[in-house]
Amino acid sequence: MNMHVLHLGPYGVNCYIVETAPGRCIAVDIGGHSNRFLNFINENGLQLKKILLTHGHFDHIGGVEEVRKATGAEVYIHTDDSFMLESEEYSLHRGLIPDPFIPVTDYTAVFGDCWINDGDLSFRVIHTPGHSRGSVCYLCGDTLFSGDTIFRCSIGRTDFESSDPIAMSGSLKLINDLEGELNIYPGHGESTTLSYEKKYNPYLLRAKR
């Protein structure tokens, strides 16, 4: 998998640009700095075809509408978080950053356990509620894009209005049950592996009990 990582927006979200075939790509989250994102794909001769959102919080959907309009890319989000794309309040944007909220007006709402295909790659949508009701991970081969569900030795917050600690526990058990050695690329911070998290992440260890 040929992948690039940009740290975008006021919270430095990990935006993953995955080349799915020669000259084409998808992006997992964006986060902001749409001009920087667009300059990068243009300089690398890439056409963006799809934007896969791990959830609907403002720090992951920032810049999406500008990029969608500029590229014609399709936007995908779990149906349980789709309402956040057009809400300054529910996306948690209001009061946290001074930049204007730009709603995403054209998107496809998906459910868990489906597949999104592009070029030579397929991305499995795994519904992992907890950080938000519609949080998902995207699994492609041996790579898991985990959004804010799981980080290196940590997990996403579960104290927001749309969060659910009990649902997060179930999602962590689901991640524990994934097979094979997976590389985990989270929404913030450094990458990790599933085997490392199973050994050292206290939240995954607790979820096994």
| Mean model confidence by pLDDT | 95
Helix and strand content put the structural class at alpha/beta
Low-confidence sequence ranges:
none
Specify the overall morphology: globular
Radius of gyration: 16 Å
Please provide the ordered H/E string of secondary-structure elements: EEEHEHHEEEEEEEEHEEHH
Count the E strands: 14
Number of helical segments?
Answer: 6
Q: Main beta sheet: strand number and arrangement?
A: 6 strands, mixed
Walk across the major sheet and give the strand order. Answer: 1-2-3-4-5-6
C-alpha termini separation: 34 Å
Give helix % range.
10-25%
Strand content: 25-35%
Structure report:
The chain has 209 residues and is an alpha/beta fold. The protein has helices spanning 34-43, 58-61, 64-71, 165-176, 194-200, 202-208, and strands at residues 2-8, 13-21, 24-28, 47-52, 74-78, 108-110, 114-118, 121-127, 136-140, 143-147, 150-151, 154-155, 183-186, 192-193. The strands form 3 sheets. The chain has a 6-stranded mixed sheet with strand order 1-2-3-4-5-6, covered by helices on one side. The protein has a 6-stranded mixed sheet with strand order 7-8-9-10-13-14. Strand 8 and strand 9 (136-140) form a beta hairpin. The mean pLDDT is 95.
